[in-house]
């Protein structure tokens, strides 16, 4: 059960958070929702796909982390447990979430922490506050991550609305073979139609560019090259399992 409270430098002066990733902490996710505000960074490490929610006819983006349920091929035994230079914001944020409180005429963003989260303790991990009470570099990083999520959530609907209006989305049926001879098909996702994107001209292209979505479309398109590297990660995992069998 979660226990979210407003973070402050009095009650949580000695609270620490483990910046480490493993299945033990629930990080063995086959995919994770991601946001337009991180596309240009994500494209260098992950395949970005889209999912359709039939209940409200909406789309959201995901980063593909594995090829089987509860499989995250980016988890490792090195460093902080994650084998990539950038960690998707929803995973990176750990036990934190953003909230808002009214300050006179404006709403101010504030940080909440889940004290029941397994990465929260008072002995090990990253400190949240400096001895004099200011935010630690780690907490500043987390605050930036939470703002990236918040701003990205606001961009998701209009971005996919623009993609749909220009008929850029298409089902992504990914067929692949593993080195052990197994053949698989990954379905239920969407990607950008390369030909439709390349065919955009004049007002449609300008419309996408002025909205800031053209660069994001190219980032999604470019990211698909990481599907082959994800398959290679899977093959490497199979090799390690075979060697220890």
Sheet with most strands = 3 strands, antiparallel
Return the average pLDDT rounded to an integer.
94
Helix and strand string, N-terminal first? Answer: EEEHEEHEEEEHEEHHHH
Strand order of the largest sheet: 1-7-6
Could you explain the architecture of this structure?
It is a single chain. This protein has 245 residues and is of the alpha+beta class. It has one domain. 33% of the residues lie in helices and 26% in strands. The chain contains 7 helices and 11 strands. It has helices spanning 39-42, 89-92, 137-165, 194-198, 202-210, 214-223, 226-244, and strands at residues 4-6, 16-17, 31-34, 47-53, 58-64, 96-103, 106-114, 120-121, 126-127, 169-177, 183-192. It has a 3-stranded antiparallel β-sheet with strand order 1-7-6, covered by helices on one side. The chain has a 3-stranded antiparallel β-sheet with strand order 8-2-9, with no helix packed on it. The longest helix has 29 residues, at 137-165. The radius of gyration is 20 Å and the shape is flat. 26% of the residues are buried. The model has no long low-confidence stretch (mean pLDDT 94). Pfam families: SapC. This is SapC family protein.
């Amino acid at each position: 059960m979660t226990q979210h409270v407003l973070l402050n430098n009095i009650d949580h002066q000695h609270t620490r958070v483990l910046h480490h990733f493993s299945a033990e902490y629930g990080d063995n996710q086959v995919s994770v929702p991601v946001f337009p505000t991180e596309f240009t960074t994500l494209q260098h490490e992950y395949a970005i796909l889209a999912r359709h929610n039939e209940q409200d006819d909406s789309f959201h983006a995901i980063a593909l982390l594995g090829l089987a349920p509860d499989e995250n091929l980016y988890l490792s035994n090195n460093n902080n447990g994650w084998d990539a230079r950038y960690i998707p914001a929803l995973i990176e944020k750990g036990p934190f979430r953003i909230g808002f409180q009214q300050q006179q005429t404006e709403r101010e963003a504030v940080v909440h922490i889940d004290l029941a989260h397994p990465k929260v303790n008072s002995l090990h991990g990253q400190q949240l506050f400096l001895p004099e009470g200011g935010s630690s570099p780690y907490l500043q990083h987390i605050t930036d991550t939470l703002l990236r999520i918040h701003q990205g959530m606001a961009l998701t609907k209009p971005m996919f609305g623009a993609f749909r209006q220009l008929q850029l989305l298409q089902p992504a049926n990914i067929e692949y073979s593993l080195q052990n001879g197994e053949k698989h098909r990954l379905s239920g996702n969407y990607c950008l139609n390369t030909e439709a994107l390349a065919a955009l001209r004049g007002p449609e292209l300008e419309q996408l560019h002025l909205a800031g979505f053209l660069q994001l479309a190219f980032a999604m398109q470019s990211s698909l090259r990481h599907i082959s590297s994800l398959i290679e990660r899977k093959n490497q995992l199979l090799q390690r399992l075979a060697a220890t069998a």
